[in-house]
Amino acid sequence: MDFTNKVTNWYSIHKRELPWRKTTNPYYIWLSEIILQQTQVKQGLPYYEAFVTQYPTIFDLANASEHAILKLWQGLGYYSRARNLHTTAKHIAFNLNGIFPDNYKELIKLKGIGDYTASAIASIAFNEVAAVVDGNVYRVLARYFGIDTPINSTIGIKEFKALASSLIDKEQPATFNQAIMEFGAQQCKPKNPDCTICPLKDSCVALQKNLVDVLPVKLKKTKVSTKYFNFLVCIDTNKNILFEKRTEKGIWRNLYQFPLIESEKSLKADEFYLLNLKDTFLNNLEFDYALYNTTDKVHKLSHQHLHTKFWIVEINAPLKEAIPIKSLNKYPAPVLISDFINTFNFKNL
User: Fold this and answer.
1) Is residue 321 among the annotated active site residues?
2) Active-site entry in 33, 49, 264, 321
3) Per-residue model confidence as pLDDT tens digits over 305-318
4) Where are the annotated coiled coils located (predicted)?
């Protein structure tokens, strides 16, 4: 098909030189795909290189501690990706003798691997004719063919998958899959694409009908909730600090944070009493406190916005569960916490 040939030819000229494009090793391809979920190439590349350097084989990754993996992942967000990565690495290393499943049907059974990732690994590593459909592919197909079916609807997911499957080059599926994704990332960009130099401009429905800024269509997301977080940076007389592991399900599971208390609103410096600390570890302890940031630090996640305050609490006694301040950076923490640690001058305490 003309579409397929033009996109593939464009790719042969404009593709970026990326390390995972120089291998068919399923471990490296899988690693790159997991890192690049919800992450741009520019941000993900240093993480990929760090993981390949520290864990050159799937056995190395499988034998690593979750603590070490989360620390290396720190800053990428969506930490369930890292936990699933570790789980799947252990399964392949210990249950499958380090041998990756070589087809889409078996790959999609692995934890953390969905349709897109299974298709990418199957086609790139094993040359299986399995069409990938990611955000870039949705955008290219919706615009070129003028499809207004919502890409995040059940009908839309099936429609675009079927269309991508009909277009894939059966002789070189790996090349086509990478070509259409690269085309979406570099040429058919989400905003302000340069359609004047596009090889598909003569037959693109969106361009002809002035729908480039309209397509693809996406159903509205669920309402984003707002939460008010108060982190207690508790420092004792020995200059040790409380740093606890989040064990409950949800965001940041198995990462570390300062003791957290949620409030119903953003608190001011003179409203510390609203944290109601009498039933916490601070009960009966003498302490002084100060509000570090009078303006909320807003941390935006896909489903919630966290309005955050950090309270510096100096306790006039030693704390049993506290750790040395100098060891803080050894623990995997959300970027919100990590940024505070790197900004706050603990040396002046």
Assistant:
1) no
2) 33
3) 999 999 999 988 88
4) none
